[in-house]
Amino acid sequence: MPVAKVLDRACAEAVDLAREAAEGRAGVMGVGEHLGVVADDVRVATHLFACTHPGYPGWTWQVTVARASRAKAVTVSEVTMLPGVGSLLAPRWVPWTERVGAGDLTPGVLMPTPDNDPRIEPGFTAANLPPDAEPAEWSATRAVVAELGLGRERVLSPFGRDEAAERWLHGLGGPDNPMTSQAPALCETCAYFIALTGPIGRSFGVCANEYTPSDGRVVSREHGCGAHSDVTEPSRGEQPSTPVWDTVTVDFGLF
After folding, report:
1. What is the CATH number of the domain that holds 75?
2. Which of 42, 45, 51, 173 is deepest in the core (most CB within 10 A)?
3. Residue 225 lies in a domain
4. What is the four-CA torsion angle of 30, 31, 35, 40, rounded to 10 degrees?
5. Strand 204-207 and strand 31-41: pairing?
6. Is the pLDDT of residue 87 over 90?
7. Which segments within the chain are labelled E, that is strand?
8. pLDDT for position 126
9. How far apart are CA 77 and CA 70, in angstroms?
């Protein structure tokens, strides 16, 4: 069984010395009542004082004092402020990459893409001429690459495309929202719907109607709104008949 530590009498009586040391470090934090003393080792003890600052409830000043063997004088070894049980603590630190959420990017802020981002994969830039390729043939290949939009260092991976599609389907431009449920028809039949290219274009496009909240945004083909191009103006009724007595036309033959 572990032997209980014996509290040194001289260290236990050094309350004023410990308080003076704590007040020298506290500043505006404040040092309150003496809460007790505990033995740390042979001729080593720690005095506890309450912190009076209202922003640090439950925190204590802890001043460790020690006495050398066969010496009478007690000296201060360490002064620190530590939280106690139920004290107010700062929130757990969260890395920057985990704090940034969707839509947090603001003008002037740079957000680097990590090398291991699963949404991105290496692209085909066709930058260097292979040793066994003809210049004319390679030039034509690069032209095709540029036309297909492949001349990039990185391109969207299948995982990134599926993740984006899932996010868009559950967003405001997806099919499950009040706007779509009250729409007269779906976006895929609307003249304002501009389909995206590639595989993702089979499900999504961009709205080009300035009067809708989705203008300039990605919408699914199953999305819809009240400004569908096939919505016609309501009938204005029958045109009035020609008046019996014309009071508007001027007959210049009378002059």
Report:
1. 3.10.450
2. 45
3. no
4. 110
5. unpaired
6. no
7. 31-41, 44-51, 59-67, 74-83, 120-122, 154-156, 193-195, 204-207, 218-220
8. 54
9. 17
In the beta sheet, which residues pair with residue 207?
193, 215
Q: In 59-137, where do the E strands start and end?
A: 59-67, 74-83, 120-122
Give the tokens for residue 37.
């003393």
Identify whether 250 is part of a domain: no
User: What is the maximum span of the chain, computed from C-alpha positions, in angstroms?
Assistant: 139
Q: Which domain holds residue 57?
A: 9-83
Q: Which structure tokens are listed for 118?
A: 């699963």
Give the pLDDT confidence score for residue 18 in this predicted structure.
Answer: 95
Domain count within the chain:
3
Q: Which of 64, 70, 68, 60 is nearest to 14 (CA)?
A: 64
The pTM for the full model equals 0.48
* Alpha carbon separation from 205 to 90, 125, 149 (Å, rounded): 45, 26, 18
